[in-house]
Amino acid sequence: MPQFLDTKEAAKHVRLSTATLERLRVTGGGPAFIKPVPNRVVYDIIDLDAWMRGRRQHSTSENQAA
């Protein structure tokens, strides 16, 4: 598996839609991303996994992450 994923691959990795991942890129609160050149975005799998782990909750009464 490659270390860097495009938006479609990254969305599949974290089980979100590409639209959600794109929206999080604009509004903030999403995983870190890399722009190696204009109009190109990639995600490091390590960042995706860390972002998901940071959203871990133990009950539904915990504050929802943005």
Biggest sheet architecture: 3 strands, antiparallel
Q: If you average the pLDDT, what whole number results?
A: 91
The percent of residues in helical segments reads: 40-55%
> What is the strand arrangement across the widest sheet?
1-3-2
- Envelope shape: globular
Number of continuous helical runs: 3
β-sheet strand percentage: 15-25%
Number of strand elements: 3
Euclidean distance between termini CA atoms: 29 Å
What string gives the helices and strands in order? EHHEEH
3D structure, described in words:
There is one protein chain. By secondary structure, this protein is of the alpha+beta class. A three-stranded antiparallel β-sheet has the order 1-3-2. A hairpin with a 2-residue loop joins β2 and β3. α1 crosses α2. The model has no long low-confidence stretch (mean pLDDT 91).
Identify the notable features of this structure and list them briefly.
66 residues, alpha+beta, 3-stranded antiparallel beta sheet, 3 helices, 41% helix, globular
Write a concise synopsis of the structure shown.
By secondary structure, this protein is of the alpha+beta class. The protein has 3 helices and 3 strands.
